[in-house]
Design brief:
Layout lengths: L20 E5 L2 H13 L3 E7 L4 E6 L5 E6 L27 H10 L14 E3 L5 E3 L11
Parallel strand pairs: 1-4
Antiparallel strand pairs: 2-3, 3-4, 5-6
Length: about 140
């Protein structure tokens, strides 16, 4: 974190703008350091929160931009293996008591998590489980 220049223009929310920038930090100790550093630099400290899979701190820097710093641990493999990520309806511990309510909510919208299939590569998962690559043979992103 660095001091924002006194004459820096304020950011404005609107078409094409960004809600916040998210950056990773190694540990909760680092997160706490930046939480205190933000106060010294005049950033507005919004919230320091435990999201189950990681901990986050949100700041608004003097130019008006929101920044999220988040730990990289314990990570999304807290309750699913790396190979099973996205194949279940995993919830952070604080939402576990609301599991059925959430499943019912999504079911009313036609989303059923018992139909989730594993995703095993870089691309789009199509009907039948086939993956269509999103990169061509040169590594360029395809938009089709």
């Amino acid at each position: 974190m660095v001091q924002t220049a006194e004459d820096a223009p304020n950011s404005r929310f609107g078409k094409g703008s960004t809600d916040h920038y998210a950056l990773g930090v190694e540990s909760e100790e680092d997160l706490k350091y930046y939480w205190e550093r933000a106060k010294v630099l005049g950033f507005k400290r919004e919230v320091f929160i435990d999201r189950g899979y990681f901990r986050s701190a949100y700041f608004i820097e003097p130019g008006g931009n929101r920044i999220e710093l988040a730990t990289t641990n314990p990570g999304f493999t807290l309750d699913e293996s790396l190979f099973d990520l996205g194949t279940t309806f995993a919830l952070p511990p604080r939402f576990e008591a609301s599991r059925q309510e959430l499943l019912d909510h999504y079911a009313k919208k036609g989303v059923f998590f018992d139909e989730v299939k594993p995703y095993t590569g870089t691309g789009h998962l199509e009907n039948g489980g086939k993956i269509r690559a999103i990169h061509d043979e040169n590594g360029n992103t395809r938009n089709d």
